[in-house]
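Lab notebook, page 48
Experiment: co-folding of the full assembly
Goal: obtain a model of how the components sit together before planning crosslinking
Operator: M.T.
Materials (sequences as entered):
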Amino acid sequence: VALELAQEVIVELTRAPQHPTEKAVPLSELRNGETAMVVGLSGGRHFVARALSLGCTPGTRVKVVRNAGGGPLVVELRDTHLGLGRGEAGKIWVRRNMSAS
Amino acid sequence: MTTVTTGIKTLTVALAGSPNTGKSTVFNRLTGLSQHVGNWPGKTVEQKTGTCRHGDIVLSLVDLPGSYSFSANSLEEEIARDYVAREALDVLVVVVDAASLERNLYLVREALELGGPLVVALNMMDVAASEGLRVDAEALEAALGVPVVPMTASRGMGVSDLLVAVEAVAADGATPLSSRPSPGARAEGLLEELGEMLPADLDLGYPRRWALLKLLEGDAALAAAFREALPEAVWQRVEAFLRQHDDAVLDIVGVRYEWAAEVSSRVLRRPQRRRVLLGEWIDHVVTHPLGGILTFVAMLFGIYWLMFTVAAPAQGWLDKQVIRANDARIESALEGSPHWLVSLLTDGVLNGAGLVLTFAPILVILFVTLALLEDVGYMARAALVMDRFMQLIGLRGRSFLPLFIGWGCNVPAILGARIVDSPGARLTTIMVAPLMPCAARMVVLALFTGAFFSGMTAILVSWSMVTLNLAVLAVVALLLTRFVFSAEERSFVMELPRYHVPNLGTVLLAAWQRLLMFVKLAGTVIVAMSLVVWVLSTFPAGEIEDSVMGMIGRGLEPLGGLVGLDWQMIVGLLTSFVAKEQTVATLGVILGVGGENGEALKPMLTEIMVPAAAIAFLALQMLFIPCVATVGAIWKETRSWRWTGFSIGYMLFISFTVALLIYQTARLFGLGV
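Observation: model returned without errors.
Model output:
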């Protein structure tokens, strides 16, 4: 149920072109070195605003630098590194295998 | 073009920029030592101002708090953007990190939308070059339509060019409205609709269009301002409209970043093959789940080592050479005057001032190391590594470092809590920091455990007491974050800046300024409260036994009886308010062995208390109200007597309750009585 709710938020927030074969997954599910494209953000206002102002907008290419499977993540986007709590990374929705147009 | 002026002309200039762009270094280069450091009115955020003379022109400069955007995502950003949007600036300088151009252009774009006179300081050109990045400043200038000055402020390069550009822009005035970038078609439409809902003469002191755009972005601080100013019915319509379009922020921010990416791709040339940077190798270790914790532990060990090998001897030296020497000087100068007068000046005033002074070495170490770690770029990594653990008590990674420093001394812990970015988490950190068992309390702990227990039992008792403090800290932090600041969203999204060679000048200057602030603000409170304690323990008889303090101790004896303590112990506890280790000296005086002799005190203590009462006393002492210096620091950082009072009140309550539980349980089972 919780996941469905999150999906609802994301559907509303999504601005990236739809891709029929790939489902959106939370950023926290990506492994070290994987790249993906941000398609939406869910979560509280403060988190969304902070993430956006740091450049994590829909359409942005993001690379996971470190995901230890537990604890925080390090990601790279727009030539900068961001540290994210695991919970926060779970609220950033991405699609794999999408090359930036 | 330029107006010919006679005499000296003053220009008001503000420096904005993201953290880690070298903004402070630019500011220091411009102002030199003509800086004034204070707080922003009513806020506990540092405000730095200064002047810079250049020919006939004097620049009056303000260094705005570091901000990634002009949205109020943090207190720093709110202050910076309020200043930029409301003040009539002659020029706004946005400092930009050339090595991280795309992300940094976001703030430039926001400044362009505001439309005031603007200069972009393209700083850290050396870092960009070392990474093989080439930024074409002229192309950037053409793309932005405002002057762009390439700089390497750490080496003083570009400073005079910046001054020339600032003066030229000041002479030209604001950018015409037509050239301001558009927030995009959808936002334009929404802006128009929103504008029609509001009275045309509504003036909140911000540019109207800008304020409406921020409202659409979901800015909480501006929403509160509008709510205040509008009739209830109008606000409800506006709020419904904003909720309906709460995804507009994605478009607005998206358009800005698209622009930033586009401009950056035009003016930035990347190396053919991307180099693996040294910082990435370092990060491999420093953000590793295990390696990160080991690095952090090593860093903390380093800070402690400095505190004990450098700060502690310096404290001793200051105490002996400055405080005691002046004691003697005052005593000989006032020979023949009444005893109370000498005592007032030495035990009262000088003791209080000495307390402030002897804190200086510890604070210098703290401020220098914190500023260094911040400047190098390590602090964000430390917060990242500790985040998962701090979540267990409702806080986030940034709170760990200040709390851990509290192990040495609570005062720097409270001052260090400024690095915590959300107000509720910062306040929680300040409230629980006095529960960290500081070094002074450990002195008392060691004396008592040594007097009553031996071998493993002594170690076990000491360990239990420290654990008790940490457990209470965890519970109080959880309660505060769960119930008092439950509405606050504490997310952890943080830039991990590039590693930099720290700028020693910037670090030392910052440490010096913070030390002066402490002496000025907390110092006054500490001296005043030390005087009160002196009065209470001196009058009317001159000896502590028969003083007001002694009488209070006797009066509280029935209460003390509940935890197995007689009046001497209560007075000993009460005087720990001046400084935690004061307990030992007071007990020495009252029990007649002198204030300087801990060893002689031990047998006396075992005579007047049973072991169960000693443990109850230790719990009471370890959890008791913060010392005056800590109270001064709490007041300085919260600017609230209510919160200061709360911290005293809750610790008083918890300490007595825990001591009561320990003593009464021990009695019930006949243990140690």
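Interpretation: The helical segments of chain A are 2-13, 45-53, 86-89.
Next step: discuss with group before ordering constructs.
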